[in-house]
Amino acid sequence: MLARFHWLQQFNQPVVQLRRASAQAAFAGRRLLAGLTAVFGLWVTYRAMWQPAWIARLPGTFTELLSLSEVAGAVTLVCLWIVVAWQYRRRDVVTIPAVDVDTLYALSPYDFEIFVAQLFRKKGYRVTHRGRSGDMGVDLEIAQASGRRAIVQCKRYRSTIGPEIVRELYGTLIHEEAVHAFLVTTADISESAREWAQGKPITLIDGTALGQITAVLSETTGK
Fold first, then answer.
1. Contact of 202 with 181, CB cutoff 8 Å
2. Measured between alpha carbons, how far is 213 from 195 in angstroms, rounded to an integer?
3. Which of 39, 42, 137, 219 is most buried, judging by how many CB atoms fall within 10 Å of its CB?
């Protein structure tokens, strides 16, 4: 599936809600296609195994038309499944919208986590969304192709991030036995927090840096 953001300001809808609606529509389409495939398969099985006499009694024209319809149905289903498979193979193609920090702050905490997940996917990471009640301070788990695993904490804050949050993240990093930790926030990060993180496997991304990263990744979309 093609994971894509659509930013339609004229409808004033959050970007991730649109993506979620698109994913739901795609899932419904696949379920419908699977149902049609099952019905077609049952019909072909019924005709091949039982060879119903009522079909043999049909006029020759109707028998030929039925056979042509079966061939056309099979070809159509195969083509549709090829399209689905192509979309699935392109599921990691990510489009990043050019949005500012205020727009990101307007998202719900969950949608902000999904947005940050897309940034990491755009950079080539495999991403697992873990953000929920009892997540132990890990919103995203990311991995490189080599298998090296890192954790991400997303903070959709206005107030400045202090060292206590960075210390908690470092504790989570040790508990998770990950190789690195990222703190991604819409807020500023205090100097004391940055000083505490120095020399540790922690990357701090404040609102300004997040806006710059988003702008760069949005420019590279489609290239």
1. yes
2. 22
3. 137
CA distance 204 to 197: 8
Range of the domain at 206: 101-219
In the chain, the number of structural domains is: 2
Owner of token pair 């496997």:
201
Q: Are residues 77 and 105 in the same domain?
A: no
Q: Are residues 70 and 152 in the same domain?
A: no
pLDDT of residue 89: 57
Give pLDDT, residue 220.
62
Helix/strand number for the chain, H first, E second: 8, 5
Both 66 and 112 in one domain: the answer is no
The answer on 163 and 211 residing in a single domain is yes
CA nearest neighbour of 92 among 130, 121, 116: 121
Does residue 9 have a pLDDT over 70? Answer: no
The better pLDDT of the pair 24, 143 is held by 143
Look at 45-59, 145-159, 190-204 and tell me which has the smallest mean pLDDT.
45-59
Banded pLDDT at 10 (limits 50, 70, 90): very low
**219: nearest Cα among 95, 90, 115:** 95
Residue 148 shares a structural domain with residue 190: yes
2 domain residue, yes or no:
no
